[in-house]
Amino acid sequence: MSLTDEEFHEEYKPLQILARYAEAINQKQKVIFALAQIGSGTAGDVIVQLEKLVAGKLDGHLKTETKHILVSLFEQGHITGGDHDGGLNFNLSKITSENSGSVDPQNLAAGLD
């Protein structure tokens, strides 16, 4: 199946990490927030962090959904992952230091300014 440019941009747009957990309106945003809080970890680690954020246990459905969301984000290339005791250790691969380079606007290709 071929995606249009608009469909591609919607499917593969960069992740947005919310500043506060309370702003999360769906489970995907909650999972991304929890992963950002721990930096990297297994699905189980993310579930533990979510349980800390809600001050309670997640039910079986939310645990399954959390695992599915992480695998889906990994398969789409939004997050990275590596083998960890037979499972995946997920990571946002977020940039933690500012870029020290510079850009000369005069050298940008047309349409990139």
Main β-sheet description: 3 strands, antiparallel
Could you tell me the CATH topology label of the domain at 26-94. Answer: Arc Repressor Mutant, subunit A
Please state the structural category: alpha+beta
Helices, by number, come to: 4
Overall mean pLDDT:
86
The name of the CATH architecture of the domain at 26-94 is Orthogonal Bundle
Strand order of the largest sheet: 1-3-2
Highest-level CATH class of the domain at 26-94:
Mainly Alpha
- Rg estimate, integer Å: 17 Å
**Which parts are unreliable, with pLDDT below 50 for 5 consecutive residues or more?**
none
Apparent shape: globular
Helical residue percent? 40-55%
Kindly state the number of beta strands.
Answer: 3
How does this structure look, described?
- 42% of the residues lie in helices and 11% in strands.
- It has helices spanning 5-11, 27-38, 43-54, 60-75, and strands spanning 40-41, 80-84, 87-91.
- It has a 3-stranded antiparallel β-sheet with strand order 1-3-2.
- β2 (80-84) and β3 (87-91) form a beta hairpin.
- The longest helix is centred in the middle third of the chain and has 16 residues, at 60-75.
- The radius of gyration is 17 Å and the shape is globular.
Concise summary:
With 113 residues, the protein is an alpha+beta fold.
Summarize the SSE layout with pairings.
Layout lengths: L4 H7 L15 H12 L1 E2 L1 H12 L5 H16 L4 E5 L2 E5 L22
Antiparallel strand pairs: 1-3, 2-3
Key traits:
alpha+beta; single chain; 3-stranded antiparallel β-sheet; 113 residues; Arc Repressor Mutant, subunit A
